[in-house]
Amino acid sequence: MSNRFKMGTGQAHELAMAFDRNGWDAEDVKMLSEGSCLAEVLKVLRGQADIVPRPVPTGAAGKGPYRGGRSVACGDETVIDCSAEPILPDGWEIRPEDQIASRHTGDLVWTPDAVRLHLDPGQENGHWIRGCDLKKALEGKPVLPANVLDWLCENRGQIPQAWKGRAVYFWGTIYRDRYGVPVVRCLQWSDGRWIWYFNRFGNFWYDSEPAAVPAGVF
Q: Which long-range contacts link 190-193 to residues 24+ away (Cβ below 8 Å)?
């Protein structure tokens, strides 16, 4: 007899009711079903891991910049603290020596026009450039960090519709994956929704894969 799990109609209904009762939507359920997410949830259920709440930072009068955990308004503006630590996927690390020195730090006031999509000449007109060479080309540019990507993933309604059809990379944070390979995360439209993904330095970047930089700085 197979040990593979099979969900009955009653279980499916019970689970659907639980999702609804706890405020889940279809996009949340889709994300839960991807990759090894359910395996990590199972560790919590079986007492093999703990949930550690992410602190919500505050500034004066309970308002301050977004620091990788929640978006917080400063008056009528949303301010993202680009100097804070971004989300760190399981098994990844951020090495200071890997980072682009000119990356944008400090606050970024978010508006739909706050970000410009930058292509290196090596990516234009159907050409491509390898990731390690693109990093060198981006030195001197104020590339935005993954904090901005994380905020957009939590506030998908703020993502410019003009970004559809592109993979927008946030070169201001360079990670090492679980194998020690340098990678950069991106935001892209896939299967009718926004998701984050990544590319490794050994791969190519094409004209549909721009870098996010603050608008109007160069």
A: 193/27, 193/30, 193/156
